[in-house]
Structures are given as C-alpha cells and as structure tokens.
Amino acid sequence: MNIHEYQAKALLAQFGAAVPQGEAAFTPEEADAAIERLPGPVWVVKAQIHAGGRGKGGGVKVADSREKAKRAAREILGMTLVTKQTGDKGKVVRRVYIENGCDIARELYLALALDRARGRVSVIASREGGMEIEEVAAKSPEKIVKQHIDPVLGMRPFHARRIAFALGLNEQAREAEKLLGALYRAFTELDASLLELNPLVVTKSGGLMALDAKMRFDDNALFRRPNIAELRDRGEEDAAESEAAEIGLSYIKLDGEIGCMVNGAGLAMATMDIIKLHGGEPANFLDVGGGADAERVAAAFKIILSDKNVRAVLVNIFGGIMRCDVIAEGIVAAARELKLNDNAKAPLVVRLEGTNVEQGKKLLAESGLAITAADDFDDAAKKAVAAAKKSAN
Q: How far is the C-alpha of 377 from the C-alpha of 138, rounded, in Å?
C-alpha cells in the first residue's frame, strides 16, 4: 500500500526526522488558507499522486509570493498529470501539498528497502539526489552505496556513520546518525516495505531535511496497523484492484486480452508466461488463493470481465487446497449470472487438475455452457490464445 508524500512526512516527523513545514489541501479554498498560514517567503506547491516524476510533468511549482502560490495550486488541482510512472492516461490530481521552500546546498538520495534475498533491510544511498535511482544505477552504479542491516542488531551507529561518510556528510555525521535511526525505526515499527527520500537535502545552514518522502507498506500487516490503513487513498488505485482486495483476491490489471484466473502466485506467473509464449498477452494477474469458495470465484469472473480489453478467459486451476469441484461450481454460477454463453467476445477455456478433478470436469460438462476444456497447461494456453484472436476478428 502506497501513501502520499505529505502523509509519509507526517509519519517521519513523529519519529524525529526533519521535514519542511507544510499543509495538504483538497480544494482551492483550502490551499489559499494553507498558503496564508505558511510563513514563506517561498512556497512550493506539489501534486499528490502515487507516482514519481511529478516535477517533470508540471506537478511541482515554486512560487515567491502568496498570489503566485495560490495560482499554482489552482492550476495543479484537477489537472491530469502525466509522468513516466503514470502511463499515457496520467492521474487526476485531487490534492496538493503546500510547504515552505528550503535553502538547498546539496541533494542526496537515501532509501530503506527490503532485500528479500538476504532477509534484511537494506539502506541504499547516493550522492546523486533528485534523480531517478534507476538511471543512476544504470549509468553510474559505483555512485550507489548499500548497507545491509542485521535484524538482530538493528541500525547501529557504525552503520549510520558508514553511510554518512559515503555521502560526504562528515560534518553532519551525528545528525545523519540520528536521522537514519529515526528512519529505521519508522520502517520496522510501521511494517514498511519501502522508505525513500529523494532528495534528502543538506541545507545551506548545514542541516539535513527530507525534502521529498515516499513510503510503501506491507498489505499483509495492515490488520495490526489500523492507523496506516486509514491513510489508504482508494482514488489512486485501480477500481478493480481495490474491489478484488476487498474480497481477498490478488488482482493486478495488465494490458493484454486474455483474462486469467489461477490459484497460486507461482502458477499465475507461469500461466502468464505460457500465454506470451504462444503469442498472446495476459490481461491480468489474478490469484484466487487456496481457500476461495464458489462466491469468490464468481466475483473473480466479474472483475476479469469488467476489463473491456478481455477477449478470452483462461481458468487454470491446480486442485490442492482448492478443490476443482468448488472452482467448477463458481465457474458455472458466474457463467450463468454473467450470461457468458451470450458473450461471444470472451470465450472461456478451463483447465482443471488435482483434487476432485473428475467431479469438477463433470460439473462443467453437464452445465450446458459453452466452455472449452483443455487437457493440459500447454493446450490451455494455445486454446485461449486462439479464442482471443478469433473473438477479436
């Protein structure tokens, strides 16, 4: 789960990190009031969307007067902001963050992220702040410093000093130690999966300040972090993905034409790969999980078919914890409710294997529905790709 910059800064401030004074606004009137309250003499108006590259897209404006700041807020609120991370459709800006300007001497990059291979939190730092870290990694990997933190020891002073000296923060070593300690506590105590300051700035007075902040959290831990869950902005999420999350489905919309319903993340990834191998493109990743019932399967179908790009649906189920007959009941119920027989644009290909597979196949065969059965994994992908091509013509 992602949150907005102003929310991330508020959380970091609670742990002792220095952030600029600022306020969020949802309307021009709220923006005007916030600008009047902030002392200035420089104001920065920032679009709040869940995507990077806002400045290049015109979503960050610096103003040297209150009138200019108010005009900038009106220009940004309601605009469709297009960046590298939003795609061509862009995102509508529904809120802005207005903060005091900062006297910047240097810009740095600092992030904490989960290194799943090592099972540790990694600190990633670079003197190239304000740039996309992917570009720095591609062009100048030697400019990136990493420090892996032992979860038993936690962030120790020597870790912080090593990072500080690598960033050239010799004079700010003590402040960097304090900041990194605060960031590590925020990361671990809030169950974050990413904490990024880009840039972290050295001010002309010699202090350190988080000029921008991005935080992402582990969805699986939100049940014990209700204060974090409340920060979720559903308006920034795909509607179908949000609906799927509400009923316990793992769904990610993609750009292809073959809808996929699979149980198990590994099998779902393999299904998408084999669809591409045979010349098709998956329209989604959807894992119904091991405990899905007929009702959830029917809901999964509705979500898949809500995508207008879907030209065929491939159901690929390996019955282990999830029984094939339960999946079959859900398929039949959804097909009848959604009148799939009348929907020639989305023919249905089903491959079942595993627990109660014969009962599942029998339910499908006796349903009277136009369902194409597949013998194996490869056969299912071929038939789904062929069906999608046929329905597109």
A: 37
- At position 77, the amino acid (one-letter code) is L
Active-site choice (5, 6, 99, 109): 109
C-alpha to C-alpha distances, 165 to 80, 120, 125, 150, nearest whole angstrom? 41, 22, 11, 20
353 catalytic, yes or no? no
Integer Rg of the chain from CA:
25
Structural contact between residues 312 and 384, judged by C-beta atoms closer than 8 angstroms: yes
Q: Is the peptide bond before 141 cis (omega within 30 degrees of 0)?
A: no
Marked catalytic residue, from 196, 236, 257, 329:
196
Give the Å distances, CA to CA, from 362 to 125, 207, 291, 347. Answer: 58, 71, 21, 19
Active-site annotation holds for 109? yes
The distance in angstroms from the start CA to the end CA of the chain is 39
Cα separation, 280 vs 242, whole angstroms? 26
The DSSP letter of residue 346 is S
pLDDT in tens, the chain (393 residues): 999 999 999 999 999 999 999 999 999 999 999 999 999 899 999 999 998 888 888 899 999 999 999 999 999 999 999 988 887 888 999 999 999 999 999 999 999 999 988 989 999 999 988 777 888 888 888 889 999 999 999 999 999 999 999 999 998 999 999 999 999 999 999 999 999 999 999 999 989 999 999 999 998 899 999 999 999 998 887 778 888 887 778 899 998 999 999 988 889 999 999 999 999 999 999 988 766 666 777 888 889 988 889 999 999 988 776 788 887 888 888 778 777 665 555 788 999 888 888 898 899 888 888 888 888 889 999 999 999 988 777
**Tokens 């209700």 sit on residue:** 226
What count of residues does the chain have? 393
Residues 6+ apart with CB under 8 A from 66: 35, 36, 40, 43
Identity of the amino acid at 312: A
Peptide bond preceding 157: is omega within 30 degrees of 0, i.e. cis?
Answer: no
What separation in angstroms does the CA of 91 have from each of 45, 50, 59, 260? 17, 9, 11, 26
Token duo for residue 321: 């914890």
Dist CA 155 CA 164 (whole Å): 13
- Comparing C-alpha atoms, which of 305, 323, 306 is closest to residue 314? 305
| Residue 338 CB coordination number (10 Å) | 16
